[in-house]
Amino acid sequence: MNPTPSKRPPLTIGAQGYFFVGGRYADTASGRTMTGQMYVEYQIPHEVSAPCPIVMIHGGGQTGTNFTGTPDGREGWAQHFLRRGWPVYVVDTVGRGRSTGNAATYGEMRAPNLDMALDRFVAPARAMLWPQAGRHTQFPGEACPGAPVFDEFFASQVTSIADYTMQQALNAEAGAALMDRIGPAVLLTHSQAGNFGWLIADRRPRLVGAIVAVEPNGPPVHDVEFLGAPDWFRDNPAVKEGGLCHLPLTYDPPLAPGEQLAVVCEKEPQGPGMVRCWRQAEPARRLANLAGIPVVIVQGEASYHAPYDHCTSQWLTAAGVENTFIRLVDVGLRGNGHMMMIESNNEAIAGVIMAWLDNTLPSRN
Fold this sequence. Notes:
By secondary structure, the protein is of the alpha/beta class. It contains nine helices and 16 strands.
């Protein structure tokens, strides 16, 4: 796709570049290599007006290109934030893109899957795996192989580490190193990176100014398997040790060695098209390091997250973490899927996020 010329004045950048955080040398059968490194690129606007930088962390099978443009050539969230005076740091998570990885260091790697990209991201009405899928309208082009915008999108999909627990451990470590280098900062996470955001904030609570969780990995305790009508959902049997993620988080009272969180499942879903939420048994333990960090969860109307992001919000609330839950449909933004940062109304969604940050963070002046 040819870029769409912006009708706005050129961006004035005061500084830009890249660096790596994390990483260590490892011996493999083919020789010594590096593992665990995370690529970070940054742009600092000439006139900074935001109170701190924002770090954008992409989801599964993706790279930082999710935020630096769109498959039909429009500006991405990185540019929208830069125009509003935000220093922006965009990463390729460990084992992805320019944070290169291979099976010798990370084990099995998962390749991009065409059917999953269509059914989950751009054309969910094709398979109707969840009740809201037919409401999707915002992919910025024809959603099928051979269509230029879709081909541009699918070309951006990359291999990634298959072991979710390993992904979380490696990205929590590299993300903490990034915060040590640039913090305090806002973490903007998407999808799978929601796990990383909770873990990074748990490790560096004083360096995380806020968390913008765009459809974070969920729901708590068990991931959802999508069946289509009439049953729609079932729980994946794997249990998330930390409730929100596969690795432990800091709860108060702390868990004893080998002890698991006590959880219960609600008897009925809270509305049509929703899953039954898992939650902590009372009295709920407090997420000690996340309490005090402002959190917003952003959900699209037609996404596969529409049935369950409310469960994540309610888990946080019960654990003492105040949070704002924004359903985009409730603020007049209809038809969005999971990849909302590249969809036709991506600028309007960025505006919703920035308005929340403006109202939440202390002013720079």
